[in-house]
Amino acid sequence: MNFLRTPDDSTAVVRIMGEFDQFLTDSEVSGIADPKLRLTFDDDTEQIRPTRRATKTITYQKPSRSLARSQSSSVVTEKDREKDVEIIKSHSKIAHLESQLYSMESSRKRARVEQDMECEIQRQELNKKSEKMEDLMKSVQYALDQEKQAKEQLSDIKKEYEFYKNKADKKIQNLQREKLKLSSEIEEVKEDNGRKQLDLRNALTRQEAENIIIQNKLDESEAKLETFKRRYSEASKQVVEIEELRNTARNATLRVKELEQQLSRQEDAASIAMTMQSQLSRYRELEKQNLKLEEDNRYYRETNESNLLLKEQRDSMAAKLKRAEERIKDLSILEFENEDLKKRIKHWEVEDASGNTKTASPVQLTHEIAKLQKSQVVLLEQQSDLKSSSQIHEAARQKAETELSAALKELNILQASESKHKELYQRLQRRLVLITAERDGFRRILNVFDNNLSANYDSQLRDRVQEAEERLASYSKHVEAVESEISQAKDQLASQKTIILELERQLKEEKSKCASRSTVSTATDNEAKAEIKRLKEENMKLAEQLEIYELRKEQMHIQGYYDPTKTKVLHFSMNPTSFARQKKVEEIEKLRKENDSLRLKIQALEGGKLPASSSTAADSLQTSPEISASTTKQVEEVKAQLSSSELRNQRLKEVFSKKIQEFREACYALTGYKIDVLRDKQYRLQSMYAERSSDDLLFESNSKGEMMLLETDFSSQVRDHIETYLRRMNSIPAFLSNVTLDLFSKQTTTIVIN
Description:
Shape: elongated
CATH architecture of one domain: 2-Layer Sandwich
Family: Belongs to the MAD1 family.
Structural class: mainly alpha
Subcellular location: Chromosome, Centromere, Kinetochore; Cytoplasm, Cytoskeleton, Microtubule organizing center, Centrosome; Cytoplasm, Cytoskeleton, Spindle pole; Nucleus envelope
Protein name: Mitotic spindle assembly checkpoint protein MAD1
Pfam families: MAD
CATH topology of one domain: Copper Amine Oxidase, Chain A, domain 1
Keywords: Acetylation, Cell cycle, Cell division, Centromere, Chromosome, Coiled coil, Cytoplasm, Cytoskeleton, Isopeptide bond, Kinetochore, Mitosis, Nucleus, Phosphoprotein, Ubl conjugation
Largest sheet: 4 strands, antiparallel
Number of strands: 4
Strand order of the largest sheet: 1-2-3-4
């Protein structure tokens, strides 16, 4: 439409303006006619309405002017029409701008609503994050509390470790004191033995002095024997001839026996030659078999090594396969959990999208989650309390187990000390046998000297014998009383041991019950510990009493007393010592009579009353000083030779003992093992790095000369080395060196820890 064109009818403009005003009035009555302005916003309605009124006033002014103009003049200039057209354009432009303004306001409100919704979402996310932060802070606080509890437990464990360490040190000090006490007792026993030996030596010197006096008396009587020697010289010559004939006959018989032995040897040599020829014929076959067996051994050794490698590979592959199966199992469990979680997420998404079911709001869900988390925290606290209580009970159980093991160790130590005391008792018994043999020798010497004394000494001897018998009876009674006390102490010790074993069995049963139950009753454990402590104290007291009784018994045995109810003294009817003693007594009696007769003759010679027939006796008396001088010289020479031989033997013994001790110390320093010979073909080895004195190894030599390991408490701890080096490798030096290395490493690690 061209607004610049002038219409044919002059009333067309008026009609158009009227229709436009009508349109505006209709739109005002019915509301906003424009569809873009149909949205009603309470905030901006008041601002829009004044503009409409302004436009309405403007539009109402327009027809009034046109009517006035039409009334004043009928012809309207072209300029006015152009102005009207511009006014209409401006009105349409204003309406268009108003519609744009309305659309911008609606978009602004929509953006504000969307921004409010986004702020609400951000606020909810912030609340969720803050709740997560609180949960993390709670978990961190819980971890810190657990760390604090772990530190407290560690400090408690360290305190317990220090307590047990101090306890062990005290026990070691007590054992060292007991060892020093035993060593001092042994030294006292040695000193007592030395004093007794010194007393015996003094008695021996006194007896030797008395013997010299008697020997001087005998020298006088030996002068008479020379006269009898002359008489016996002729008979001795005949005896010599007879002995020569006997020697020739004996030599002839010996020659015959030697010839018979040579014949038997030749027969044996012939049989041995035949057997050797048969063995030489089989020697080649044996060499072939030996070569074949060596090849088989080499092949079996190689196959054994390959089998060992394959076994190790199989074990490693089995371990890898086991780990892989565990990983696969964990992965399958995780996949199943992942699928379950995906299904749950999908289920929640479907419910949210459908909207059929009324779902709770996120705030309610967060509250429920917070409640669940609080309940979970409470449950976790309860779980931690239960864990701590279970750990306390477990620590109490472990403490009871350690105390039980310590009690068992102490029992083993007591048993080891008992075995040591038994060994000491056996050693002292052997020493007692030697001392009793020496005592019997001294008694025989004393009996000889007593028999050599005069006849007036018989009454004193009887008194001494009677006194000794009374003393022997009193000591035998004392020995019986001591042995009865020892038997009672042994019975008490056996009963205490049975009680200890019963208590150990009860403790094991209680331990098994404690493992099945969650809570452990400490009252029974304390009672058992107190009972064990009391029994140990009683056991120690009884062991001390037993040691005292054993020492008393040994001292009484050393003094030469025995129990007549248990020990019988046998006297041979044809005893050679009694015959020799009787013969000696007869010779001494004969010499005494001759001495008396010679004394009478000397007195007669001094008085000048000797008859002429006694000139031979005077001759014999003149020759007696020369004979006595020669005999005393011979006796002194024999004594000098005897003393020199004894001195040489003593020096050889000292040198041998010194060399043997040096050799033992060198072996101990080089090999690290102290070797003791227990009995025939049985040896005990103890390492210098052994933790206890009872840690030793026993070897025994069989009939083939091979060394066999015997079972001990320590050998049960090194079964791996026995299996590897003795059964597989058959090497005792390798076994001993590996045991030494293990003990050395343990000792160095304990030193480093300390």
